[in-house]
UniProtKB/TrEMBL annotation:
InterPro entries: Ice-binding_C, vWFA_dom_sf. It comes from Pseudaquabacterium pictum. SUPFAM superfamilies: vWA-like. Residues 313-335 form the Ice-binding protein C-terminal domain. Gene3D superfamilies: von Willebrand factor, type A domain. This is Ice-binding protein C-terminal domain-containing protein. It comes from the Bacteria. NCBIfam families: PEP_CTERM. Pfam families: PEP-CTERM (PF07589).
Length: 337
């Protein structure tokens, strides 16, 4: 279940090409905070020669983290590798998929020495992080994490560029340090912990239990929703090409409505209610079913289902029938991310 709500939870109508219908949607951002999330997780594994004694431990840890995250929310995951060399095709070996078994297979396929055995320290982790950040097809509204599993510090693409890429894609980088090695890397860095910290991330010991790691991650997600500044409703392009969706904010708990958004300095000290007029316009013929989301600071917190068949928009006198169809629908619950 989801702590935040959007209502009605579903809407259906028959529209002819060029016709539109507008309905009022109410979003409640609850004081209780979110309890689930849309998560994208990329596992980036160092395959250089020095990982020989711990590569299997790293693969096991990646699989354990994946399984733990699967129970938390709507998860998509992917896998990449790097060593002395870091190319886009290595940094993203498997694209994001919601089928965890596919990612587990990709993790199991990771092999020491592929793409190369390294040869010196550090490895090209900075380049791999930057390539993965910019080449993955991150899902709209997701909470995005990149797990770097290595025994050494990172080099390659300058850190300012990597930091900018991570910020632009809203990706959080997390390190898992295997072994106690400390090798010279970027100035002042000799370990993965220092390299990840330089990118604004946090590193855990490779032996950290998946439960403890996931607990820390989910606490971070939840605390990130304690204060927020923008609430809106959007289908994130899901209705196209048949249905165009446009939103107008009509009331905000506090703050102000600016176009499609409620803008203000909000917190979860109380439940807060926001209202929107959402207009669906048919652009092309064909049945269409898709999801419309409530978004807090760009992250999905609630969702509802829309379905349209090709036909005529209800006349004003028959809109009461639409109201009857919507009666009794329970609130959909969803959180960021």
């Amino acid at each position: 279940m989801f702590a935040d709500t959007i209502s009605p939870t579903s809407f259906s109508a028959s529209l002819g090409v060029g016709e539109s219908v507008t309905i009022r949607k109410t979003v409640v951002v609850e004081a209780a905070g979110p309890s689930a999330a849309t998560i994208d997780a990329h596992f980036l594994i160092d395959t250089s020669g020095s990982m020989g004694s711990v590569i299997n431990n790293a693969k096991t840890a990646a699989g354990d983290i994946l399984n733990a995250l699967s129970a938390f929310g709507d998860l998509a995951s992917s896998v990449g590798v790097y060593s002395e060399r870091a190319l886009a095709g290595d940094a993203v070996r498997s694209g994001l998929t919601t089928t965890s078994a596919t990612t587990i297979s990709a993790i199991n396929a990771v092999t020491l020495g592929d793409p190369d055995f390294g040869g010196d320290y550090p490895e090209s982790g900075d380049t791999a992080v930057d390539l993965a950040t910019n080449n993955l097809a991150w899902r709209a509204g997701s909470n995005r994490f990149m797990f770097v599993l290595s025994d050494a510090s990172m080099k390659g693409t300058d850190e300012a560029t990597v930091i900018a890429s991570l910020a632009a894609k809203d990706v959080t980088v997390i390190g898992l340090q295997f072994g106690g090695n400390c090798f010279s890397g970027e100035p002042g860095e000799c370990s993965l912990t220092q390299s990840i910290a330089a990118l604004g991330g946090t590193t855990f010991a490779g032996g950290t239990s998946p439960a403890s790691l996931v607990s820390a991650i989910t606490a971070g997600i939840t605390s990130g929703f304690a204060n927020y500044g923008k609430v809106t409703v959007d289908d994130l392009g899901g209705g196209l090409p048949e249905i165009d969706v446009s939103t107008v904010c009509v009331s905000a708990d506090i703050g102000a409505c600016v176009g499609a958004d409620a803008i203000g300095k909000y917190d979860r000290s109380i439940d807060r209610t926001f209202e929107y007029d959402v207009t669906f316009t048919r652009l092309a013929a064909g049945d269409k079913a898709f999801t419309t989301f409530a978004l807090v600071d760009g992250g999905i917190v609630a969702r509802e289902s829309d379905r349209f068949t090709t036909g005529k928009v209800p006349e004003p006198g028959s809109l009461a029938m639409v109201g009857l169809a919507l009666a009794g629908l329970a609130a959909a619950r969803r959180r960021r991310a």
